[in-house]
Write a structure and sequence with these properties.
By secondary structure, the protein is an alpha+beta fold. It contains eight helices and five strands, in the order H-E-H-E-H-H-E-H-H-E-H-E-H. About 30% of the residues are buried.
């Protein structure tokens, strides 16, 4: 498989930034496109536990607002879309379709709490794919914690086995409003080859 061109690597990684101020329009079609890209990222046993609510309407934003920490409220309310990235602790119910060549569902039968770690881990992976997919379709992102998970879960996932993980504001950012880029650890500081 060939390496992507530098322009693509810049868009996905090197020049992509976390935006605090996002505006513009984000169509439903773009949201479908970014999900349809993100869904192809790998997960353990193809479990695909990520569940996403794209909060776009004024009414839905009003439902989300009480759960936001003060520092995230204004920017989230102003963003065209906020993705609530969650994970389904009953993901195993879909495994007969998603992983049909063996009885993977039986691997995860039992108490829901025993499925929390794989659901959270793989849902987090898929949330990262969602950010990269958003960048790939031309959107800027503002991923964040800083909200009351219990309030979000009660408002958007009541009566389900879905738990919120993090939020991602989506839209179009102004590069002129960004802080200088923060450094990253070097390979030798963060990695080793054994």
């Amino acid at each position: 498989m060939p390496t992507l061109p530098d322009a693509s690597l810049d868009q996905l990684f090197r020049m992509a930034r976390t935006h605090n101020e996002l505006g513009g329009e984000v169509s439903d079609e773009i949201l479908r496109q970014l999900y349809d890209l993100a869904k192809w990222g790998p997960t353990s046993a193809n479990m695909c536990p990520m569940r996403v609510v794209f909060v776009k309407s004024r009414e839905a934003k009003a439902r989300l607002e009480p759960a936001l920490d003060e520092g995230n409220r204004a920017k989230t309310m102003a963003a065209p879309v906020t993705a609530i990235v969650g994970f389904d602790e009953d993901f195993h119910e879909k495994l007969p379709v998603l992983f049909p060549h063996t009885d993977a569902k039986s691997w995860f039968e039992g108490p829901r709490e025993a499925r929390h770690v794989p659901a959270f881990r793989n849902g987090s992976l898929q949330g990262a794919y969602l950010i990269l997919a958003a960048r790939a379709v031309g959107l800027d992102c503002g991923p964040m914690s800083g909200f009351d998970n219990a309030k979000v879960d009660a408002e958007f996932f009541a009566g389900t086995a879905i738990k919120s993980n993090f939020l991602v504001n989506l839209g179009h950012g102004d590069p002129g409003k960004l802080f200088p880029r923060s450094p990253r650890l070097s390979f030798d500081e963060a990695a080793r080859i054994v």
